[in-house]
């Protein structure tokens, strides 16, 4: 039986991982008492006693926790930003390439992708890898997210009885273009310039819609939206977590794409829309699912040699 420890199980990511472990007969959860939650010695004991440790912590605490592991058998899966571009850490998005999947399967240190970064990289990485988008393309993206992505503090703010009226409307943030996911977006995709990124938080609990707009004439290979849809379908063929919808599928919802449609699910959808001059790559998923906890559990399953979807919630 695999021994699993979740360091930071009280946060939104940790709680969702806990939910996905419920009912699994192959997992033994190692727990820490509330009074010892921040005790380095007890945390070190549990980390080193585990086969898999999930770090659901702020960056500094995650770096400290990773340093507490002193053996060669414990696999660390870090859900923080701390190690996503660090040398020696596998980037936990196995669908991107054979090399990414192999690294997840064999490396003892796995960095979980960021939620916004998951949508962005899903849209951009295949285009760069396929020689369709040049590395110096001026990439921009919008990302609509539910408020659970802001953690306990933001959840309490949105769900408070006397909340501010401004929370009723979507709010743009990270206006200084220094969002913490930008570094992994650029590095993982192999871009030579920083993306122009505009995240927006709205009044719903969870779910995310990331949109990358493209000028067809600036791409290395000119494609129609339908041709690009077919390219993505072929690129992610056979991947159970990624559904590339048929061209025009958004018409079934009156040509609207809502950010919360996949809330509670662990898979991801891609819609290609637009026209022959301007194309939109739209990626929809749950920021707490494929954007956080589900990605971590998927990586654990692969690292253990299990079916990647084990214990996870996928739609049609």
What would you say about this model in short?
The chain has 316 residues and is of the alpha/beta class.
Can you describe what's shown?
This protein is of the alpha/beta class and 316 residues long. The protein contains 9 helices and 13 strands. It has helices at 12-21, 40-49, 59-67, 98-106, 115-129, 151-159, 182-189, 225-235, 289-303, and strands at residues 2-7, 27-30, 52-55, 75-78, 90-91, 109-111, 140-146, 171-172, 196-202, 208-215, 242-244, 268-274, 278-285. A 7-stranded mixed sheet has the order 8-9-7-10-13-12-11. It has a 6-stranded parallel sheet with strand order 2-1-3-4-6-5, with helices on both faces. It starts with a strand and ends in a 13-residue tail after the last helix.
The end-to-end distance, rounded to whole angstroms, is 31 Å
Work out the helix count: 9
Largest sheet: 7 strands, mixed
Unreliable spans are none
- How do the strands line up in the largest sheet? 8-9-7-10-13-12-11
What's the arrangement of secondary structure elements?
Layout: E1 2-7, H1 12-21, E2 27-30, H2 40-49, E3 52-55, H3 59-67, E4 75-78, E5 90-91, H4 98-106, E6 109-111, H5 115-129, E7 140-146, H6 151-159, E8 171-172, H7 182-189, E9 196-202, E10 208-215, H8 225-235, E11 242-244, E12 268-274, E13 278-285, H9 289-303
Helix pairs in contact: 1-9, 4-9, 5-7
Summary tags:
316 residues, alpha/beta, six-stranded parallel sheet, 30% helix, globular
């Amino acid at each position: 039986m695999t021994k699993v420890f979740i360091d930071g199980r009280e946060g939104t990511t940790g709680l969702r991982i806990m939910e996905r472990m419920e009912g699994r007969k192959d997992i033994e959860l190692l727990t820490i008492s509330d009074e010892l939650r921040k005790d380095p010695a007890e945390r070190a004991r549990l980390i080193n006693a585990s086969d898999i440790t999930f770090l659901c912590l702020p960056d500094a605490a995650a770096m400290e926790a990773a340093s507490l592991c002193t053996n060669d058998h414990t696999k660390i899966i870090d859900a923080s930003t701390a190690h996503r571009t660090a040398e020696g850490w596998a980037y936990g998005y196995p669908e991107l390439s054979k090399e990414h999947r192999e690294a997840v399967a064999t490396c003892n240190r796995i960095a979980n992708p960021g939620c916004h970064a998951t949508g962005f990289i899903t849209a951009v990485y295949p285009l760069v890898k396929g020689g369709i988008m040049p590395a110096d393309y001026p990439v921009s993206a919008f990302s609509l997210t539910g408020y659970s992505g802001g953690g306990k503090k933001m959840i309490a703010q949105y769900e408070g009885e006397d909340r501010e009226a401004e929370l009723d409307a979507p709010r743009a943030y990270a206006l200084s273009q220094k969002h913490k996911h930008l570094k992994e977006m650029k590095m993982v995709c192999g871009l030579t310039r920083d993306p122009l990124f505009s995240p927006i938080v709205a009044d719903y609990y969870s779910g995310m819609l990331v949109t990358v707009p493209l000028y067809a004439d600036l791409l290395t290979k000119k494609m129609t939206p339908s041709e690009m849809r077919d390219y993505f379908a072929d690129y992610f063929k056979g991947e159970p977590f990624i559904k590339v919808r048929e061209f025009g599928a958004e018409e079934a919802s009156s040509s609207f794409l809502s950010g919360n449609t996949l809330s509670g699910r662990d898979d991801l959808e891609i819609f290609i829309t637009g026209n022959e001059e301007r194309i939109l790559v739209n990626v929809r998923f749950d920021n707490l699912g494929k954007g956080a906890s589900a990605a971590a559990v998927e990586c654990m399953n692969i690292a253990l040699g299990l079916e990647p979807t084990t214990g996870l919630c996928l739609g049609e």
